[in-house]
Every structure is written in C-alpha cells, then in structure tokens.
Write a structure and sequence with these properties.
The complex is a heterodimer of chains A (332) and B (425). Chain A has 332 residues and is mainly alpha-helical. Helices cover 73% and strands 1% of the residues of chain A. Chain A has a two-stranded antiparallel sheet. The two termini of chain A are 23 Å apart. Chain B has a 5-stranded mixed β-sheet with strand order 2-1-3-9-4. In chain B, strands 7-6-8 form a 3-stranded antiparallel β-sheet. In chain B, strands 5-10 form a two-stranded antiparallel ribbon. The chains are: A mainly alpha (332), B alpha+beta (425). Chains A and B meet through loops of A and α3, α18 and α19 of B. Chain A: Residues 1-13 have a biased composition (Low complexity).
Chain lengths: 332, 425
C-alpha cells in the first residue's frame, strides 16, 4: 500500500519544471492565466486526444444520440418522428419490460452472492497455499478470459434436457433428470451458474490482493488465541476486507445487471420466427436482451432506446444504494 | 519545439486535405453520379445464393466488375446500417424472406424493379412470391431468389411398424387433413411408446397459419390476430398438445430427437430436407416426403433488391435476372438447396432426380405442386413483432403447463399492445 504515494510526488514535479524551462527560452512571462495557459499545454492535450476523440465518436455521441432516439419513433432507415414521452409511457404498461427487469434482477441475485462468497473463500484458501500458487491463480482466472459465446454453447449442451451430461450424471445416481432449459427457475439458475463460473476467478484475484494487504500478525494473534480457520475467516478476514468486498459488489452489480450474451447464445437461435425470445416462458429474457430484440429484430429503435435509458435509471438506483452502503459503513 | 510545431500543423493540414480529396472522390462515386458505373457490389449471406452461379456471373458480365461479399452475422442489421450511412451501399443486395416486410415501408430507398422490366418476366415466377416483395401500390422491391414450400417429412419405417400407409402417394391420400394427421399420433405411440408425432406446437401453428392468406395484421394496418383464422390454428396446435403426441421440444435437442426416432414426422419447408440430413445422417433412406396435411404453405425464401444508390441499375438488374434465371435456379437448388421461385425450373434434371436420403423419392412431385398452390398472403411490416407473443405463449403451454385458454388471452393482449406500440390500429 505504501508504494503508490512515493511514486506520485517523485514523478509529479518533472512536468512543471520542464515547462518552466521552455517558458524561459521563449522569453514569455512565467505566470499565465485562462485560455492562453491552457493552450500552452497543447502537446499534452494532443497526446491524450486519441482516447477522447474515440470516446466522443464511439461512446459519447451514440449515448447522447440514444437519448434523442428515446423520444422518436424510428425504424432504422425511414423518417424519424417525434413522439415525446410516448415510448416511456408505453414502457410503463409493457408487461414484457417488467418481466425482463424481474428476470435480470433474479439472475443477478442468483449469480452475484454465491459468486462473491465463493470468490472470498477461494481467495482465503489460496492465500494460505504455499505450493503451485501461480497455477491456481491462473486456473481460476482462465474462465474470465474465455469467450462467453464458447462457454454458453458448452453450458447449453451440458444442460440439454434429454441428452445433456448433467442430466446423464443425475440419472446415473438415480436422481430424476431436471428440465434445465425448459423451466423458468432452472433457466435463470443456468444463466447465473454461467456468470458465476466466469466471474468467480476475477473477484478472487481482487480479494487475493486485498488479503495480502492484511498484516499477518493479526492472523498470528488470532491463532495464539485459539481461533480456528472458520472463526478467523468470519471475524478477521471478512471485516478487514469490507471495503474491497463493497467494491466488488458494485462492479458485480454493474456487470451482472448487464447480462446479455449468456441468454442470447443459450436461447437466441431457437427459431427464425421468434428470435431472442429468452427461451421457454421468456424466463431468460434479460433487459438488455429485450432491448436488443426491440432494436435489431423489430427495428423499433426509439422504443429500444427508451428501454435502455429506463434501465440506466435502474442501475443508477442500484449504484446509489451501494454508495449509501459504502458511505454508511465508513462513518460507522 | 517550434519547428516541430509548424511541421505538425503542416502535416495536419495535408492529412485534412487528403481526407477532403478522398471524400470528394467518394462523393462522385455515389448516387449523385451517373448511373453507368463500372463497379457493382453484391451482398448476400452464406448459402443465400449459389457461390458457383455468382462466380459464373462475374465471368458472364465483362463490361462491369462484379464484386460479391458474403456478409456474416445479422445481415439485416448490417444492410440497414449501411443504407442509413448512405455510403458503400451495395448495388445489389439479398434480403431475407423474414425481413422483406420490414423493408417495404421504405420502398423509396430501393429501385422499383418494374421500371427495369421485372414486370415483363414476372409470369415466369410464382405470383404469390412476387407479391411478397411488392409494396401495396405495386412497386416490385424484391425479386425472388427462392421459396420454402412446406411438406410433411415422415419416417417410413416407423409408419410401417405402426400399420400406417408408407407409400408417399397413399400417405398423401390418407393423411390429407389436420384431423387425419393427429389421428396417426396414437397409432405411432402404440408402436413406439417413447416416440411422438411432432416436435412442438409452434410447428402446427406456423404451418396452418401459412395455409391461409391472412396473418396478424390486414392490409388496412388493423390487428386481426384475435380473429378466427388465427384462433383456428391455435386450436390445432392445442389439439396436438392435448393428444399427448407433442414432444414439446423447443431447443437444440431436436437434433438428437430427429436422429434417434423420438419424432416420427417433421413439418417444414423444402430446405428442411437439408436440416434433417444434417441432424440424422444415419437415418438415410428411412425418410419420405408427403404433402402437408391441410394444404401447402410457405416458410422462408429470400429476395434480391437494388438499393436507390445502385450505380448501374440497368446492368444490375440484368445480373439479377441472370442469377435467378430458371436454369441457374436449378443449379442453386443443387448447390445450395435453394428451392426455385420459377416453376419452369421444376422440370430440370437437378430437381427431378430421386433423392437417396428419401429412398429415391422424387421430392419435386410433392414440393412442385405445393409451391404453385401456396395462397397469396399479406405480411405487414409489424407482423413478425406482433406474432411473437403467440410463439412465446405456445412454449409457455409446453414448458410451464400454462392453460391454453389463458395463454391465448395473454398472447392476444400482448400482441395488441405491441401492435399499438408499432402504430397498428
């Protein structure tokens, strides 16, 4: 934890120094105010501009444009017509939107909490491992860099109702097979499992970094006092890690609410006449999948934009709740 | 520092000027220019046209350079984006059958092919298919590549063991209505307790809806999805479900079901032959094709269209005509299983050959007459979106055991709402 602050001050003075030198050579007054002072930094601005230009073109402009679209009716190539708040008004009465929102939240709960708990347990175990640590770290992180599409296809065949390996195993131990991809709850569970599989390693690595910052004498003291591993985990590790846990909760919330690829691949190709339906009973229809369906299957771009902006407000609400939790804990 | 600054400005100006020149070149290339361009681009998707026929077209038309691109992924989306940008728009493009209706409201962005002489060769092509590519005021936007006449695929060996007729002609005579069809479900399940008649309810709903001329929305943009012609098809689907002969398969496990004889029949278009062969190569010789119970319908089949930006409409339409001539459609059938939209092609050897996968049956004897008897239909731009709740509710019946009457009510209610959102009255 001590390393970054020392690097900061050491690097910082160099820039003004160099700048003062150029000022002297050109014989201009040292102190400047306002826009001229800004202009004199132009090489630095040029150097950072590629990111901002790309950001403006490919992220900021589309974002603002989608807000504009949310007040229009537009099929993608024809004339746009301004409809005011009509899209949002329709959104409120659209049962499919609320269903999609509910699906998204259920999948998020199913995935985030088991995932973070498992990640913390794994990180604790890995932190006390002496051998093959790099191997374990890499092994747990690999799912995160694997293609979601490939993994979704694998999950699809593994959980296939009649011929999947999961049901084959269940039947082998005399448990009746489960219609994984046909029941509204198991569909959500499969999507959540997929996300858990993919993101546990990522969170584990973050926890591991946090764990290594906990001084070992705290653990030694606990050991001397006779605390077992479970007691140590809940009384020392979890409280000491609280800020990091809250960080991962926020990151996982933003990621988890945006689930799209998983249901899209699992249920996207069912039929040409009903694409991206989210599977039987629309149980896997997440908000973003519904947005995609409206925009790119129905060419209903105005309505799709309204969906994502409404969803943006929901995510904002979640982030605000998280934020309050963080602030509240800090004060306490 | 100062020198490099000046040089930087110079370079920047040069780059900007260069970009301007390039843009100017681009401008002269596009629609504002003359209509006798020498470069033509053709967009289609993998399997959308026969690659061999396209390659021959490049040799055939020597006064222009034809460049073809196979566009992967979501074709409609890429075409829409490009047309919206109004640059690098293909001169000739494919449009999928399920997307054509959504392009028709923007007919002004395409060339009316009748102005190039499409109406003169229209008689060689199926009328109902041409109509699908037409606007309501008769502008021909899409020229048909292929069609999807439907039929019943059945396992001859399973029919034999169940004591049913096995010869396609006899099957056609004895299983001509939906009632006849549902009746054989019980016979098959008596002989094969673990087998089913059909994969799901959606197949029945889809096929029977296609047997009539009306869909979810009529020509006056009015919602008619709650009317008898839809309800009748819904009830047929429910009849399958309630007979217990519905396999309730709504996912990729269909592949295994077709391969291991879980389903005795499949209802689908001519191109489904390819799927069945692909899913169940070991069942070669055991399948046959018979007319669809209740009459023929159509499922899919794409179009070629010329966007307004086309740089040489005259030649481009000549190329379209050549690509889709009856002879080349015959080659398209052989090469890419594209069922010809021109009945003249049905007499070509490529189509009249017996198919060993179907025990040497000449499947054209089923598909040919079916193709010519498909009723003309009107598909509104919002039809696909409005139909979605019906499909969703049918799968809800199968996966959740939802009561069919409740499902119908919910489907109609949601369809109305989607229609309202899409401007349907």
């Amino acid at each position: 934890m001590a390393a970054p602050p020392t690097a900061g001050p050491a690097a910082a003075p160099q820039v003004p120094q160099k700048h003062r030198r150029t000022d002297r050579s050109s014989g201009r007054p040292r102190r400047r105010r306002g826009p001229r002072r800004l202009l004199s930094f132009w090489p630095q601005y040029v150097a950072v501009s590629p990111f901002f230009l790309l950001f403006l073109t490919f992220l900021f402009f589309p974002m603002i444009y989608s807000l504009y679209l949310a007040f229009q009716r537009w099929d993608g190539i024809g004339e746009m017509s301004y409809v005011g708040l009509e899209q949002f008004r329709f959104l409120l009465d659209d049962p499919t939107f609320w269903l999609a929102l509910r699906n998204t939240l259920v999948i998020w709960v199913f995935s985030t909490f088991p995932m973070l708990f498992m990640a913390l347990v794994l990180a604790t175990m890995l932190n006390s491992t002496r051998r093959l640590t790099s191997f374990y770290r890499v092994a747990y992180f690999v799912p995160n860099v694997t293609s979601v599409v490939a993994v979704s296809i694998f999950f699809f065949s593994a959980f296939s109702d009649r011929y999947g390996v999961v049901n084959a195993v269940l039947q082998a131990v005399n448990v009746p097979s489960v219609p994984w991809l046909n029941n509204e709850w198991t569909i959500k569970a499969v999507i959540a499992m997929l996300m858990t599989w993919q993101w546990t390693g990522y969170n584990m690595v973050i926890y591991l970094a946090g764990l290594q910052a906990i001084p070992s004498d705290v653990y030694e003291a606990a050991k001397l006092d006779g605390a077992g591993p479970v007691r140590t985990f809940f009384s020392i590790t979890v409280p000491m890690m609280r800020p990091i846990i809250l960080f991962t909760v926020i990151i996982s919330t933003v990621n988890g609410l945006q689930s799209f690829t998983e249901p899209q691949v699992l249920f996207g190709s069912n039929a040409a006449n009903n694409p991206n339906s989210g599977g039987p009973g629309q149980a896997g229809l997440t908000t973003l999948l519904y947005f995609y369906h409206q925009a790119f299957d129905n060419n209903n771009f105005g309505y799709a934009a309204a969906i994502v902006w409404a969803f943006f407000l929901v995510i904002l609400l979640f982030v605000a709740i998280n934020w309050r939790l963080v602030q509240g804990r800090r004060k306490g | 520092m100062d020198v490099s600054r000046r040089r930087f400005v110079q370079t920047a100006l040069l780059v900007a000027a260069g970009a301007g020149v390039t843009a100017a070149c681009g401008g002269s290339d596009s629609s504002s220019g003359t209509k006798d361009g020498k470069d033509l681009t053709l967009w289609y998707w993998g399997g959308g046209l026969s690659d061999k026929v396209v390659a021959d077209a490049k040799k055939q038309f020597t006064d222009v350079t034809l460049k073809s691109s196979i566009i992967g992924g979501t074709f409609k989306q890429k075409l829409l984006t490009t047309m919206n940008g109004r640059s690098f728009v293909p001169d000739i493009t494919g449009i999928k059958g399920e997307d054509i209706a959504s392009f028709l409201p923007n007919a002004s962005r395409f060339i009316d092919l009748n102005t190039l002489g499409a109406d003169k060769i229209a008689s060689e092509y199926l009328d109902w298919k041409l109509k699908q590519g037409q606007t309501q005021d008769g502008k021909q936007i899409g020229f048909p590549i292929d069609i999807g006449p439907t039929a019943m695929y059945y396992r001859e060996d399973m029919f034999a063991k169940a004591g049913l007729p096995t010869d396609p002609a006899k099957v056609a005579a004895e299983i001509s209505t939906w009632e006849d069809y549902f009746a054989i479900g019980a016979e098959i399940q008596k002989a094969y307790p673990k087998a089913f008649l059909l994969n799901n309810m959606t197949a029945v709903f889809d096929m029977s809806l296609g047997q009539g001329g009306m869909r979810m929305i009529d020509e006056n943009n009015k919602f008619i999805g709650d009317q008898d012609h839809v309800r009748k098809c819904w009830d047929l689907a429910v009849q399958l479900y309630e007979s217990g002969a519905d396999a309730k398969i709504n996912d990729e496990s269909l592949k295994a079901a077709v391969a291991n004889g879980t389903v005795a029949t499949q209802l689908g278009a001519a191109w489904m032959a390819l799927d069945v062969k692909d899913m169940a190569p070991d069942t070669a010789g055991k399948w046959r094709v018979a007319p669809l119970p209740g009459g023929p319908s159509n499922m899919g089949g794409s179009f070629l269209a010329l966007p307004k930006e086309c740089r040489n409409p005259e030649v481009a339409f000549e190329i379209v005509k050549w690509l889709l001539s009856p002879e080349n459609q015959g080659r398209g059938f052989q090469d890419a299983a594209l069922f010809p939209s021109s009945p003249a092609a049905y007499k070509l050897p490529a189509l009249t050959e017996g198919d060993p996968f179907f025990g040497g049956q000449k499947t054209i004897e089923v598909f040919g007459p079916a193709a010519e008897k498909v009723p003309a239909f009107y598909e509104a731009p919002a039809n696909a979106a409005v139909a979605v709740p019906f499909y969703n509710e049918l799968t809800s019946i199968e996966s959740k055991g939802k009561k069919p009457d409740d499902a119908w009510k919910d489907a109609v209610e949601q369809a109305k709402q989607i229609g309202k959102q899409q401007g349907v009255s």
